[in-house]
Write a structure and sequence with these properties.
mainly beta; Methylamine Dehydrogenase, Chain H; five-stranded mixed sheet
Length: about 475
């Protein structure tokens, strides 16, 4: 795998957390979007003229490459977009803009995508029951993970170790993986693959209560999330609205869990609603759970068992399928979500009871959303209408672009595979560079390191067997506070 470690980032998440949680300092947040102008770029997601429904979006988290957006769809394609390539007019057609390249990553739908930390490598979770790691420079698969017996619905990378990640599947299990593990060959399909380091089956067992028509609640794991301490994993399932927190050093039982109504008598009824998505902010303090009762519950990671500290909902906001996702902004000030009514909703996390902002433009259910890591007000959404939109919230000015609802779809063509190698040239323009001064080169990847297989300094299972310690996520906050 072509990699380059990013060791220049000295930011301490836990120091930030300690001030927020232990000292109870009020974090400065941006105003509630006064006088903003909404701009967006509309891209029709299609392959050889046939429309495809996107399922997942993910912005690259590597500094200098935050403009790269990965999108997956029901046809098994993985597409990369350069979100700086915004046309000056919605009606113009620029066939070299926006989409950088695409390729068939799976022969089945891809339900989730995730960038590995620090590398230009994307994970894809598919309905073919596998997970694949892709080098975005060469568009080559550098690892195939097999171990689930159902569609893989969710994948989440380790917050600091680029070789480790977690996955959740429709088979009711979540698994931990390490790309440094040796691949093995299958007798049946003769394909080499990596097996999971650990797997927890029946992580969210079906409730004894039955749904309508006598159907038992699903055991599917719909979302997994590696927390910022690097040893804890949050999971959510389709059968109930319980969020479980697991310690990867001891996976026999969950460390703690939370649900929407922990102290109410109607808990059994409320917990029947499944979870479609889990997300966290950059510092790891806040955890959001999108629930099938048309609500998003906000939890304090350190007090999960006490129930949600806030609830985001609206009379028009609907979550009618498990494809609808939500994301907390990097600064934890806002939460963004798709909706079955075809709109995008945004709430303030500090006043979730307030009415949300509603963004119109999509013609059908909005499923995936994601925030750009750099800069406030830039995010992407995808919809069953076959489009991906990149939105930007800017301060009011005399020059305003057409409203999102009136925007026409911009059809773009991906570069042929034979030409795609010419796209990945050197390009260091930052996201803040004016559009009229940007180079026409689409994007590049960081300089590649040696392709020889690295010899790990420790056992590949080190994420599961760290030095003897019984510290929990709360201890990381305390340690950071002491150092501060």
């Amino acid at each position: 795998m072509l990699r380059e470690r990013n060791s220049s980032n000295s930011y301490s998440v836990f120091r930030d957390l300690s001030f927020r949680e232990l000292n109870r300092c009020r974090v400065r947040t941006r105003p509630w979007l006064p006088g903003v102008v909404v701009e967006n770029d509309v891209i029709a997601l299609e392959h050889d003229g046939d429309e495809a429904i996107p399922f997942a979006l993910s912005f690259c988290e590597i500094n200098g490459y935050h403009h790269l957006l990965a999108a997956s769809d029901e046809e098994g394609y993985l597409s990369l977009f350069d979100t700086r390539k915004v046309s000056p007019s919605f009606t113009s057609l620029n066939r070299t803009a926006s989409r950088a390249c695409e390729w068939v990553a799976h022969k089945n739908a891809i339900f989730d995508v995730c960038w590995l930390k620090g590398f230009m490598c994307v994970l894809t979770a598919s309905g073919d029951q596998t997970i694949k790691a892709w080098n975005t420079e060469t568009k080559k698969c550098v690892g195939t993970m097999k171990g689930h017996s159902g569609s893989v619905k969710s994948v989440s990378s380790h917050p600091s170790n680029p070789d480790c990640f977690a996955s959740g599947s429709r088979d009711g299990s979540f698994a931990l993986w390490d790309l440094r593990e040796e691949s093995s060959s299958s007798v049946t399909d003769r394909e080499t693959s990596i097996s999971p380091l650990a797997q927890v089956k029946n992580a969210h067992s079906a409730s004894k209560m039955k749904r309508k028509r006598g159907k038992v609640a699903s055991t599917s794991i719909t979302s997994v999330l590696y927390l910022k301490d690097g040893v804890s994993i949050a999971s959510g399932g389709a059968g109930d609205s319980v969020v479980k927190l697991w310690d990867t050093r001891n996976l026999k039982s969950p460390l703690t869990q939370g649900c929407p109504a922990p102290d109410r008598s109607d808990t059994k009824v409320r917990t029947l609603h499944g979870i479609s998505c889990l997300s966290q902010d950059l510092s790891g303090t806040l955890l959001a759970a999108s629930c099938m009762d048309d609500s998003i519950y906000l939890y304090d990671v350190l007090n999960l068992e006490k129930g949600p500290r806030g609830i985001c909902s609206s009379c028009d906001f609907k979550i009618d399928s498990f494809f609808i996702k939500s994301r907390i902004s990097p600064d934890a000030a806002h939460i963004l979500s798709g909706s079955s009514d075809g709109n995008v909703y945004m709430w303030q996390t500090q006043s979730s009871e307030s009415a949300p902002l509603k963004f119109s433009g999509h013609a059908s259910e909005v499923n995936a959303v994601d925030w750009c890591p750099s800069g406030f007000g830039k995010f992407a959404t995808s919809s069953d209408d076959g489009t991906v939109r990149v939105w930007e919230l800017r301060e009011g000015s005399s020059r305003q672009r057409p409203s999102p609802a009136a925007a026409s779809r911009k059809r773009v063509t991906a570069f042929p595979f034979s030409e795609s190698s010419n796209i990945l040239g050197n390009h260091t323009t930052s996201d803040s560079t004016p559009a009229n001064q940007r180079s026409p080169t689409v994007f590049s990847t960081p300089p590649a390191s040696s392709s020889k297989k690295r010899r790990p300094d420790s056992s590949p299972s080190s994420v599961l067997n760290p030095p003897s310690s019984k510290r929990t996520i709360r201890d990381y906050f305390l340690a950071a506070h002491t150092k501060a």
